[in-house]
Specification:
With about 350 residues, the chain is mainly alpha-helical. The mean pLDDT is about 85. The strands form 3 sheets. The protein has a 3-stranded antiparallel beta sheet, with helices on one face. About 45% of the residues lie in helices and about 10% in strands. Belongs to the 'phage' integrase family.
Length: about 350
């Protein structure tokens, strides 16, 4: 029997070939006898025509999977993740030949220049690819242990911009992008919602705007007078509401012309302004955090904050229900006050 005990696992593994195809993986068993029983079961499946599946390469699997994801709003990100995965493991490698060690090495290398949250999203994307190909009845070998490839992200503190720092940041921002920062701070929208906002999405009569969420859903967002004013004062040169002045000519783009805003342009401008006024550890996404924290603090309504931020889970919104030292002082003063209606001193 072709079972063996690897040094790195408490479980016996099987490894055999049938008609030129390799079958290998963990038996999930700690005794050789049980492992051999499992190996016989796998071998019987492999020799039964109804159980045999065709091989599929990484390149073929990605092409098949992208036909399903091409209409999703996150398609560009998905395509990038899959392209990097194919480059790392080889276009002609069969999915059934991708071992846990190969997957682990791929994500370790990816993590060198990326955050834990980004790597976890990449794991989710590759897992979705595997599950889809499995559903299409191709040979994927053993389903990888995706949970073991994910890492728990560090618990970062919620960063709230003070009004003083907000004014300094707006002053330091390049003029053509200052309104974008103000819109992010005032609305609590995600960066991509703002970047992808089109003039055709705006209904000034009803004071609403159609927004595309990160999961692909479309929602109607209410517009305040401030948000409406910010949108109305944008140049209408582009289909997108928010644009930037091209500082360097490049092919079709000419210096001084308006171009639709991109994530890179916004991020680079924000970083330049942040460093200029010495705001360490503040990220672009913290503008959304700031808006959320202010909503909770000024209204006390988690439901309003949840709706404004378009969270699907109230537990996510609870992160913003934080008290500052001043909030605690006021609460303690109120708790110890004798001036409570209905109670005599």
């Amino acid at each position: 029997m072709t079972v063996y005990l690897p040094k790195s696992s408490p479980y016996y593994h099987y490894d055999f070939q049938f008609k030129g195809r390799r079958y290998n993986g963990s038996t999930g068993q700690k005794t050789k006898r049980k492992a051999e029983e499992y190996e016989r079961f796998v071998r019987n499946k492999a020799t039964t025509p109804s159980y045999r599946r065709d091989e599929i390469s990484i390149s073929e699997a990605i092409t098949l999977y992208q036909s399903k994801t091409e209409s999703q709003s996150s398609q560009k990100t998905t395509a990038y993740i899959l392209r990097e995965f194919q480059k790392s493991l080889g276009a002609n490698t069969f999915l059934s030949d991708v071992t846990p060690l190969k997957l682990q090495k791929h994500f370790i290398k990816r993590k060198e220049k990326r955050s834990t949250a980004t790597i976890n999203r990449e794991v989710d994307t590759i897992q979705a690819l595997w599950r889809y190909i499995d559903k299409m009845r191709y040979n994927i070998g053993d389903m990888p242990d995706w949970a073991s490839l994910r890492r728990r992200p560090p618990k970062l503190p919620i960063r709230e911009l003070s009004y003083e720092d907000q004014d300094r940041l707006l002053e330091a921002m390049r003029g053509d992008l200052r309104d974008v920062i103000e819109f992010l701070l005032t609305s609590g929208w995600r960066r991509n919602e703002v970047i992808n906002l089109k003039w055709s999405d705006c209904n000034f009569e009803q004071k609403t705007a159609r927004s595309r969420l990160k999961g692909g859903d479309t929602v109607q967002r209410p517009l305040t007078d401030t948000l409406t004013a910010i949108i109305r004062r944008q140049p209408t040169d582009c289909e997108s509401v928010f644009s930037y002045l091209c500082e360097k000519g490049n092919g079709a783009r000419k210096k001084g012309q308006r171009q639709p805003l991109t994530a890179n342009v916004l991020r680079n401008a924000f970083e330049a302004a942040r460093k200029k006024i010495n705001l360490p550890h503040v990220r672009l996404h913290d503008l959304r955090h700031t808006c959320a924290t202010r909503i909770v603090r000024n209204t006390g309504s988690l439901v309003a904050a949840k709706t404004a931020l378009q969270h699907t889970n109230l537990n996510t919104t609870l992160r913003y229900a934080q008290a500052t030292p001043e909030d605690v002082r006021k609460a303690l003063d109120a708790a110890n006050s004798r001036n409570i209606p209905g109670i005599s001193k």
